[in-house]
Amino acid sequence: MRYLPHSEADRAAMLATIGAASVEDLFRDVPREALDGAAFDALPDHGGEMEVERALSALAARNLTAGSVPCFLGAGSYRHHVPAAVDALIQRGEFLTSYTPYQAEVSQGTLQYLFEFQTQVALITGMEVANASMYDGATACAEAAAMAVRITRRRKVLMAGGLHPHYAATTQTLLACLGHEGEGLPPDPLALGDLIGRVGSDTACVIVQNPDFFGRLRDLSPLAEACHAAGALLVVAVCEPVSLGLVAPPGAMGADIVVAEGHALGSPTGFGGPGVGLFATREKYLRQMPGRLAGETLDENGKRGYVLTLSTREQHIRREKATSNICTNSGLIALAFTIHMTLLGEAGFTRLARINHANAVALAEKLARVKGVKVLPETFFNEFTLRLPKPAAEVVEALAARSILAGVPVSRFLPTYPELADLLLVNATELTTPEDADALVAALKEVL
Questions:
Q1: Which pLDDT does position 187 carry in this prediction?
Q2: Domain covering 84-341 assigned CATH 3.40.640.10 in the classification
Q3: Given this model, what pLDDT does residue 348 score?
């Protein structure tokens, strides 16, 4: 093995050094039933390079790829056109192989694009300061909850029923590990829920999503006022960053912290990732913000330069006092985001958002004319929820057999709510053509 050149004697020596009798001892913390069920029947145990390529190619051919058929998938991961320049630039060796820019004198290019990234994120979210990216949108949401707890010195976090289930679950997990309380409202595709009435003196923050998981757009200003009157913070999550080109930014509605998933700008939908977490806040909360912050300065000759202004100590000597213990960001994906946004420009970003909304409205109008189908949200951006006369998962499978990726059944994310089994999330972007929409409508009529 050219990649694992250890002999049996090498392995025996290493095991003896660490006091393990066998390699299996290294996995003793994994439940036996999990290990016993870990066989991959579809893959051969070993084979030559050509045989393995054939086997994997055959498996890959079973996928129905989003770029080859009419695709209406969304639910937090959105497919947009990525200019060829983005890939060409992020694959330059200076960017592709770079690491954390601890040495500013040899990291000016990296620090500059991080600074530009922060500027773009602050502008589109309507906030005063942004960090140099987080791992993804869900972990950024969890970090925002922890940040609100630190600021308010309260332990209760209230999450709206329209928050993406993955964001809610990630946030609940982190809060539980930190010893704080997370309360999530039941999912409701029609109402925002009585969030204002639940904000109390023990509430650290309220987390809402806009557009929410069901596609609804809301004016969050009244909720922000209620939060601030109670001494709580408002955290707004955004799963579709393109919406910020048209919808009023969360900062304009009174948000204190904004988190978002940014991969839709600059990155393909590769099985849901990789992601890049956007994180922005008010300047007065700067020192409680997780992640790193790149800044602009002048050197002794008066020449502009870039530095790592703030760091959260998560990798340093006082880790217990760090504002975050997620020891990574997504620098390369942040660069892809920055390049894509720069190519669009302000006018192009707004135009892209308008095209997305127009395509979604046109699609919703066509689907609303299908017998038995109801479009639920009155106001949406580029994604909306359909109520079908039969379980949505069955409809999606039937349409996939007709080479149409019709959307995402809500039951895939919320299986414990049988009353939501007839709901289907449908998304349209600039890549959705009128022919795609007509194909979906025609096939849906047949299936129903």
A1: 93
A2: yes
A3: 98
Half-sphere exposure of 221 (CA within 13 A, CB side): 5
- The residue type found at 20 is A
Confidence of residue 410 (pLDDT cuts 50, 70, 90): very high
Is the pLDDT at 273 greater than 80? The verdict is no
Cis peptide before 250 (omega within 30 of 0): no
- Nearest residue to 385 (alpha-carbon basis) of 364, 405, 401, 399: 364
Q: How many CA atoms lie within 13 A of 383 on its CB side?
A: 33
Alpha helices in 322-330 (DSSP H): none
List the chain domain ranges. Answer: 84-341, 346-447
Domain 346-447 in CATH 3.90.1150.10? The answer is yes
Residue 37 has pLDDT above 70, yes or no: no
Half-sphere CA count of 428, side-chain side, radius 13 A = 27
Cβ pair 118, 294 in contact under 8 A? yes
**Radius of gyration from C-alpha coordinates of the chain:** 24
- Its sign, for the CA torsion 83, 87, 88, 89, is positive
Spatial separation of the C-alpha atoms in residues 445 and 422, rounded to whole Å: 16
Closest CA to 294 of 49, 70, 114: 114
Helix or strand (DSSP H, E) at 212:
none
pLDDT per position as a tens digit, 361-392: 999 999 999 999 999 999 999 999 999 999 99
Stated pTM of the model = 0.89
Helices 331-368 and 434-447, packing angle to 10 deg = 60
